[in-house]
Amino acid sequence: MKHLILLVVCCCSVQILAQEDFWAGRRPADHAHKSIEQLVTEIAQDSVLMSRAIGIGGLPNRQYSRFQILSSKASKEDLLTLTDHPSPVVRSYTFWALADQKVEGISWIARNHLSDTARVRTQFGCVGETKFVADFYLDLLTQSYLITEDYYRPNHSRLEVSLQREIDSLVLRFHPHLDYFERLLMRHEPIDSDYEVIRAIVEKGNYLGLPALARYQKKQDLAFILSFQDSASKKEIRFFDPKKCLFLAIEAFPDDYFLDFLEIYVEENWPKKIRRWELREFYKACASYGHPRSQAIMRRVLDPEWKDSLNSDHFNFLATALGLHAKPYHEAMLFEMWEQHNRLSIGGFQFLSEKDPARTAPLLARYFANFNTSYHSIYDDAFFFAALPFAIKHIPDAASDLLVKKIGEEWGRKGILYGEFATQLKREELLNVLLEEIAHNFDPRTILKFAEFALSYERDDIPDAIRSAWNHNDKLALSEEGKEAIGRELELMLKEKK
Fold first, then answer.
1. 65 membership: H or E segment, kind and range
2. Looking only at Cα atoms, what is the longest distance across the chain?
């Protein structure tokens, strides 16, 4: 025990000495910078990179507050200096501040730190992980969305495409140790100067590069790509086995050369031996063709002979694949999947609604009517949001019935999105459900938005109906003081509408 205590004391002492060494010769004289020095020390001692709200309950934390103060107080020169600080979490926070401020030359700072393989612990919302500092830098500069205080929000620090390509080129050639390298391989789009690099990566056995290589669509690579069909001798990388990557490569390069392999594969493995994590990509590979042979493979799912042998994954993944590759030669199968098995993806719906709205409308009305509100997923809501504009125009009764259900059961952002559709139909039953939610919903933001939607009906009796509903609300998750504040905001809205 004494040895353990001594070890902890020594480690802390080393960290403090490292902080002292870092500031030696760099301390500005004024008092404002002394407070920055203290902030940096506290951030380093906490050692976890946190967003504003952490944990399932979205709790605020001191570490993020320190970051905000540091970001607002420190000069650009201070922040640039701190990107070389000995603490990984300090380096990460200071780069985050520079990225948020869109400091000129931010891509050069990232380039100079691509070899930063120190690990930093992160806690963003309820998501905790450990990653390379360089990977955190690249997340800030390249991802469309970031997990921050609001969980997913648009990334305002994203680099221009040309600068991102320059960094991607460096990572491909010199930094295969980064997690970003694998993500880059999976999404890489053809650039002539990168072809030999991608080919060399795959030749070394990294089959995550197969889809990237296939996107170049060079006939000389066909046999090489297919050589990865034997998954037994290859080690799985990040839940992507070679067979799955091979199907992704075929999807990217649907050459007739691969049709024999697809037919043999389905004959040897149909239907039970196809692993679930390969099944989605298998159907996407088949759907990328417009060939009768690939159509025959997919039509096995619709064959009554196999009705009792197939689980729902076959239907769901086939519907997704057909939607991703919705083309005229898939139209008949898309309608058949929808009419007989009630399966359709967003892409499939958008294709069919444009091609044949008269045939699509009754099928969508049936889908809405049979929807089970007690058991559904976020994919159902995404489909509804995509389909409702068509439904409001072509089958308004069915659209209204669905909205009555969804406005009454959803809350927060989804409930507000459904409520907004009510303003396009202006039906009495939708007004009633909006008022009902004002009386019983516990989310203040939803209540205010529903009041706004109800006012869009532009009737003289609605303000009093909103007041009555609000006065009956006993579910609001706020203190009395908070409820009074929302009441004042609501009253202001009603008066402005007059």
1. helix 62-73
2. 83
